[in-house]
Model the fold of this input.
Amino acid sequence: MSTKTVLWQNTFNTISDFPIAFPKLGKQTSDSLTVLAADIGGTKTNLGLFLLEDGHISLVERAKYPSQEYTSFTAIVEDFLEGGANPDRISIGIAGPVIGGKATTTNLGWDVDRETLIHDFNIPDVYILNDLEANAFGIAALKEEDLLRLYGGKREIEGNAAIIAPGTGLGEAGLFWDGEKYHPFATEGGHADFGPQNDLDVDLFRYLRRKFGHVSWERVVSGPGILNIFTFLRIDMGREVPDDLREAMEAGDPPAVISEYAQKGYPICEETIDLFIRYLAREAANLCLKMKAVGGLFIGGGIPPKLQQEFFEANFLSHFFQAGRLRALLETIPVTI
Done:
């Protein structure tokens, strides 16, 4: 079942202080254009119908669908279009690698094919992007009130930027700076090998290797990763789990419960979230170093905004800067949620 909302008055004005190179701009052949935009995630799929008219983008209708309750993306689009909408274009952000207009969602197993969608819906303009690449394009539409600046860095330095976003999985993307504009590009860095740094990390790695075989950063820096860390602390490290916490986890969403109870001072939850933030910070630093992202680091995803702000800020930055000889480079990078 979807959650659908009709909005007739919402108009979005873009900002120009973070210039993005949009490859499809300038190809619009009419005064107005309707676009069906989709964000496919492992937990939920968001759809929005937008009207582009006179240089403004208006949200006409939106809906949220629980991804696991549908067998395909096509089924969700069919559900959405039952209301009579007839978009001129479909633009899709998907959690998974996109190759040749085709993608298989990493955490759902859906196959999304550009040519199939063109045929099924008789819409010639269909674009499929990695979801983090789509997020990178979306930075241009953000206002200052949409952002939380964790660290100012040296904002006058121009250069590449990076995005990291823990959610159902771990998304990573880059923005190449050509001297005038940013060009977003996708990566699958979240599936690169997890790198333990101390004895506890090694023990966690061994636990995860027994469970999964290959151990990627996504196994610790994601919603399921929070539960993986918690379970390791409970089983292998013998941390105590109070009865009320156990009951809350059985009744609710375990990663969300762990985050909530960390703020209540439950030791195993505090340790879990502390490790999660440390691993997020270390992998964010890895990403920034590989891309030389002096233009900024953006932290997205559904998890960081829900964590206690003061706790997140202090722990993230202290671990983010631990890069040995390249600490000075990381200290130039603005960090924003």
Q: What stands out?
A: The radius of gyration is 21 Å. The longest helix spans residues 267-291. DSSP finds ten helices and 15 strands in the chain. The chain has two domains: 3-131, 189-336.
